[in-house]
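hey so i finally got around to running the thing on that chain from the lab meeting. sorry it took forever, my laptop kept dying and i had to restart like 3 times. anyway pasting the input first so we r on the same page abt which one it is
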Amino acid sequence: MSDQRTALVLGGGGITGIAWEIGVLAGLAGAGVDLTGADLVVGTSAGSVVGAQVTCGADLEAAYARQLQPPVGERAAHLRRSSLAWFAWAALRSRGRDAEFRRRIGQVALAAERAGRTPSEQERLDVIGSRLVSTEWPDRPLTITAVDAGSGEFTPFDRGSGVPLVQAVAASCAVPGVYPPVTIGGRRYVDGGMRSAANADLAAGFERVVVLAPLPRGFGPMASVDAQVGAMVARVAVVSPDAAARRAIGRNVLDPAARAAAARAGRAQAAAVLAEVAEVWQG
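ok and heres what got predicted. didnt touch it at all, straight out
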């Protein structure tokens, strides 16, 4: 029997993605399918927050309850149309060259920071730190994804990387044009979702894989979840928001006002996907 049995992949999807993933995980666990004991957890962007929480021992019911609290003092962030236009331009100019696309997106992130359109790096570190149950890496295998803003290199971080957990998660959540790149070892890093919304291929070699993907589709050179899991020799279940969850999430995944509805929708959806996930995870 392989030591690499189960992997939980948690994809990106903003504030509502965090809430939806926690809702799904809590609903599944309540029905007897607890994914948080996976032999590997891979977290990208929103998924890095959830991954850090569950591997550090967060109680799912308590985490779910926090998602239902009113967003007092929180304001919605927005991805500017100019940034979206830059993303499209970068995809066109890069013509499928993955690292080149990510390097151009990194330039967008750095330019937005220089123009004062993002919070300060310390502000973001404080926000991310407040969302974690521990600032120390867990003993369990956790991989958090990021992208080097200068080179476009895809960079997975783990306990052995020598990178503080808060910085790794903040880097993975650094949506270009919205939040500032994060400094690690003298380099600047942005959202791991700029390579793939979930980076599910990091679970290759595991026997049973469950992917929670708030944003399953690719854009330009960014690989879709289906493309990545299609290459795996494993039993795989991919869960993405259903129609009710998409309505709850709304158009702006960075709006904390939609967090509670997204969490409830995720929990409700867990019942619909329970059999599929259980067959992969426990079958």
